[in-house]
Amino acid sequence: MKISEWPLPHVRVKCARCDREGRMKLAGLIERFGPDRDLFVVREKLTEPGCKRENKKQPCQSILPDARLVQAIVAKTEDDVLVKELLPEAREWREKLGMGER
Predict the structure, then answer these.
(1) What percent of the chain has pLDDT over 90?
(2) Which site in 22, 64, 88, 100 is 20 to 30 Å from 81, CA atoms measured?
(3) What are the CA-CA distances from residue 68 to residues 31, 49, 83 (Å)?
(4) H helix or E strand, kind and range, residue 56
(5) Using N-to-C axis directions, what is the helix angle for 39-47 and 26-33, rounded to 10°?
(6) CA 14 to CA 81: how far, in whole Å?
(7) What is the mean pLDDT of residues 59-82?
(8) Are 42 and 29 in contact (CB under 8 A)?
(9) Which long-range contacts (CB under 8 A, 24 or more apart) does 55-60 make?
(10) Mean pLDDT throughout 74-91?
(11) pLDDT score of 102 more than 70
(12) In Å, how far from its chain's centre is CA 92?
């Protein structure tokens, strides 16, 4: 997914190994990396240098905690949503973002 395709105003990133977590404004990431950069590559660039994992030989296991919510927001139909429990929040975000009903 390109940075510009992320519908939320912030991107949260968390390391599953060291529990380090941060939140960045989407606009700042677009300014820093450009709108067409792959968000998953950017995620690694943001977390790898500061990861506090014990074994530096192991890769940082950064994740996007809101990825499933984003999937629910951008899904073409509600039947395509992977985690149905996220549908109410996804509907709220779609309304806030002016994305219409699915």
Answers:
(1) 63
(2) 22
(3) 24, 25, 7
(4) none
(5) 90
(6) 23
(7) 93
(8) yes
(9) 58/17, 60/15, 60/17, 60/18
(10) 96
(11) no
(12) 17
